[in-house]
Amino acid sequence: MRTTFLFIASLALMGLRAQDTTRTRPTLLQYGSRTVPAAADTPTIQQPGDVVIHQDERITKLMERYATHKHALKGYRVQIFLGSEREKAREMRRTFLLKHPDIGGYESYLAPNFRIRVGDLRTRLEAEKLRHELKAEFPGCYIVPDEIEMPRLAGVRQ
Questions:
Q1: Which of 40, 48, 84, 93 has its CA at a distance of 20 to 30 angstroms from the CA of residue 15?
Q2: 36 bridge partner residues
Q3: In this structure, how many other beta carbons lie within 10 angstroms of the beta carbon of residue 137?
């Protein structure tokens, strides 16, 4: 009997907590000379304003320092040339960039060879796709892990 009473009392208390006891006034909207209450799903009219950001000057200095450093990002590139002749490597890079201007091409030297690597690919799967596309043009190409450039943001000129 006592447990039944406690059970019923706890249900009653839970029911009271579930009810919303706070009442708020409806938002009022201006339509010309009329003022009407807004419906629950009616968006409020936004007014233009100014945003003021207060921040410590050390944050500004930190952001300036961060922008001046190069930040390495681990990823993959497809190597299309490896050889000891500098002019042949540069010609290969030029030819590649003429055919694929949207894909970056990079020349590097690791004694005694020059390397031409292309693409800034974040995943091995993206690198496999590019290698497959270039395989007919450059039969000896292969994927190498490398530090890649940060991806460019759409609409941002550099």
A1: 40
A2: 29
A3: 12
The helix (H) or strand (E) run that includes residue 86 is helix 86-99
3-state secondary structure of 151: coil
Which residue in 128, 58, 133, 124 sits closest to 102, CA to CA? 133
Non-local CB neighbours of 30 within 8 Å, separated by 6+ positions: 45
pLDDT tens digits, one per residue of 7-41: 666 666 666 555 555 555 556 666 666 776 666 55
Q: Which of 113, 122, 76 is nearest to 92 (CA)?
A: 113
105 within 8 A of 96, measured Cβ to Cβ: yes
Token representation of residue 9: 């009392």
pLDDT beyond 70 at 157: no
Q: Given 3.30.720.10, 2.60.120.200, 3.40.50.720, 3.30.70.1070, which CATH number is that of 73-147?
A: 3.30.70.1070
What are residue 84's phi and psi, to 5 degrees?
A: -95, -5
